[in-house]
Design goal:
119 residues; alpha+beta; 3-stranded antiparallel beta sheet; 3 strands; 61% helix; 13% strand; elongated
Length: 119
């Protein structure tokens, strides 16, 4: 173990190891927790979905109409609807029907959960 530290001394990896090993103990993920996190990561692993989340997050009330996000991402309406459905199924967005338009709202707690994965 000491040899590894000597080899890594002075590298960026040394700082990462120090931060990781010096961090307070945290219980490893259980299998159900890992499966839930994997589902979240899978949902956001597409550039269009990340862009959609960003657009909705930047809206004043963290919600947007599907009719507004379609032109912003430059994809067809069916494709955008599919991506929004995936994000909704993952719990990152909620969907509300307002007349003939679908509105999507960010679920901040779920987004925070994504951030905690690597904290």
């Amino acid at each position: 173990m000491v040899k590894s530290v000597v080899v890594l001394q002075g590298t960026l990896l040394e700082g990462a190891i120090g931060k990781c090993c010096g961090a307070p103990a945290r219980a490893p993920l259980t299998r159900p927790e890992a499966e839930e996190v994997a589902g979240l990561l899978k949902a956001v692993s597409d550039p269009a979905r990340l862009q959609l989340l960003s657009i909705i997050r930047s809206a004043g009330d963290c919600s947007a109409c599907v009719c507004d996000v379609v032109p912003a991402v430059g994809l067809s309406q069916p494709t955008v609807s599919h991506h929004l459905k995936v994000l909704t199924k993952a719990g990152l967005l909620t969907r509300e029907q307002r007349g003939t338009q679908a509105w999507f709202t960010l679920v901040p707690e779920r987004l925070d959960q994504l951030g905690q994965i690597f904290a």
